């Protein structure tokens, strides 16, 4: 059955009060705190319908009601406005992210910032090599037979490898090798580079290029492992047993598994937030939580994901706004660097 606007208003009021007070919400409190424009008896009737439809439930301990996962889902789907960030929150983000020195710094600052602003567990995926492109390749002579190969991606990742050359090479040879590499590979997505590296070897007929190619392919192709940064697990201790429907242990164990955390970023996109509530989570151990995630990257390109894990009783409008804002700032930073 579709709910009319009045019942949606009652549900919205119950969610907002429960998130704010952590107490089950009764009809009398709703009438006192919200301008619903109807009598307590009407509110009680609406609450009975919401309960029959599975949007709210009554904990055994009280006469009040609390939202169910289904109720939170309807509330999130019908959010007419995402709570705007306050000027103080905006300034906090800008201050926190000013003066970052490299990608590692961006990720670590972002994950700590998210945890502080939302008071949830924050998760940030490092920019995926699979989605990155080569920005520049540098060759630094270490000796006449040894080079340091430095690959910088458009997402700020820096990979370094030592290349052993079969014969000694003067500086001008190294300069020419660098020129050929960048002419062929700069701006190319990492996943598209292997055939181009092969072409370089065939065109140059140079044993130094062959040695470089072996190390390059290892760097470009085989290093596809993804990395995750996590902050704010201590925030879970603030939530009571009612919030997380039992033990913290399975949640903490799930948060230690990188493979599980990477699943949180399946199908994320830049600019929009994905909210998974309770049983909507694929990961069984996270089904007592909600996950708000989004993608980030320079411009409109997507290079990674970030988000938060918390109780289903969370401030969804505020959390969605914060997650999206931090993602936007991180994308801007990557575009600048």
Report on the structure:
This protein has 337 residues and is an alpha+beta fold. The protein folds into three domains: 5-77, Winged helix-like DNA-binding domain superfamily/Winged helix DNA-binding domain (Arc Repressor Mutant, subunit A, Orthogonal Bundle), CATH 1.10.10.10; 87-127 and 226-336, GAF domain (Beta-Lactamase), CATH 3.30.450.40; 130-222, 2-Layer Sandwich (Enolase-like, domain 1), CATH 3.30.390.60. It has 13 helices and ten strands. It has helices spanning 5-21, 27-33, 40-52, 69-77, 87-97, 103-118, 171-185, 194-204, 207-222, 241-244, 249-255, 258-263, 316-336; strands spanning 56-57, 66-67, 121-125, 134-143, 146-153, 158-164, 228-231, 273-277, 289-296, 304-311. It has a five-stranded antiparallel β-sheet. A three-stranded antiparallel β-sheet has the order 4-5-6. The longest helix is centred in the C-terminal third of the chain and has 21 residues, at 316-336. The protein is elongated and about 90 Å long. The protein starts with a helix and ends with a helix.
Outline:
The chain has 337 residues and is an alpha+beta fold. It has 13 helices and ten strands.
Helix/strand layout:
Blueprint: H1 5-21, H2 27-33, H3 40-52, E1 56-57, E2 66-67, H4 69-77, H5 87-97, H6 103-118, E3 121-125, E4 134-143, E5 146-153, E6 158-164, H7 171-185, H8 194-204, H9 207-222, E7 228-231, H10 241-244, H11 249-255, H12 258-263, E8 273-277, E9 289-296, E10 304-311, H13 316-336
Antiparallel strand pairs: 1-2, 3-7, 3-10, 4-5, 5-6, 8-9, 9-10
Helix pairs in contact: 1-3, 2-3, 5-6, 5-13, 6-13, 8-9
